[in-house]
Amino acid sequence: MIAPAIHMAGSLHAGGRCLIEAFDLTLPAGRWSALLGASGVGKTSLLRLIAALPCAARLDGRITAQDNAAIAPRVAMMAQDDQLLPWATARDNVTICARLRGERPQPDRAAALLADVGLAGHETRKPSQLSAGQRQRVALARTLYEDRAIVLLDEPFSALDAMTRHTMQDLAAGLLSGRTVVLITHDPAEAIRLADSAWIVTRTGVDPCPLPPTAPPRAPEAATTLTAQAALLQRMRLHLASEAA
Ligand SMILES: Nc1ncnc2c1ncn2[C@@H]1O[C@H](COP(=O)(O)OP(=O)(O)OP(=O)(O)O)[C@@H](O)[C@H]1O
């Protein structure tokens, strides 16, 4: 499986206004890239454009893979909302994309992934019988089941309690090692913990953020992690202040 770098450049527009004036972003091959930035700046739109999904925003520019092959067929995307089918069990939701493609589902693999995300014994529950955090973990298992080279994660751990989030971050870091992963997060601690590269998306472009020299996933209690978190938070504050001015 080749996990390519992805290059995006141009300007982003929606509803007759410019969201991002000009940006040039290379998401490194086989690494985790984090995108942070104010609500509404266009982060989800960038992910949807990479995945070639319908999007209210328009990119004047281009998105290419390093190997020039098509991107969309190699993408698994975990959206902000869990997008689970209400009438299907957790296990059937994990295999839904494969079944829609006409592939034979692998229920044992789905059950194993559900166990990985801490949902052993919940395989036959419907989404309405699960908590928001449990539903988010089913959506994570569905994304992992896809086993794609490019994985787009839009606030994947936002509904989880702190301890479960920590466990799921480690799990995703392990299972998605070597994939080109793009993570949208509002949490500087999560970006510092997981990312190989990070950018703050703003109206004027994308601002690269320094990260500790250690490899992710980084220990949350390490001094370098905490210092980098504080610096990133401060940088986000400065961007917010300058956008408001
Ligand atoms: N149908 C639409 N018509 C016009 N503008 C839209 C439409 N849908 C979304 N937008 C605008 O597109 C912009 C980008 O939305 P997007 O969801 O990409 O932002 P985001 O940075 O991911 O936000 P958040 O962090 O809140 O998820 C927003 O400012 C939003 O108002």
TrEMBL record:
UniProt-listed SUPFAM superfamilies: P-loop containing nucleoside triphosphate hydrolases
Keywords: ATP-binding, Nucleotide-binding, Transport
Pfam family, one: ABC_tran
Domain ABC transporter as annotated: residue spans: 1-228
Keyword Transmembrane helix listed: no
MF terms (GO), sorted A to Z: ATP binding; ATP hydrolysis activity
Similarity annotation: Belongs to the ABC transporter superfamily.
Name of the protein described by the UniProt record: ABC transporter ATP-binding protein
Provenance organism: Antarcticimicrobium sediminis
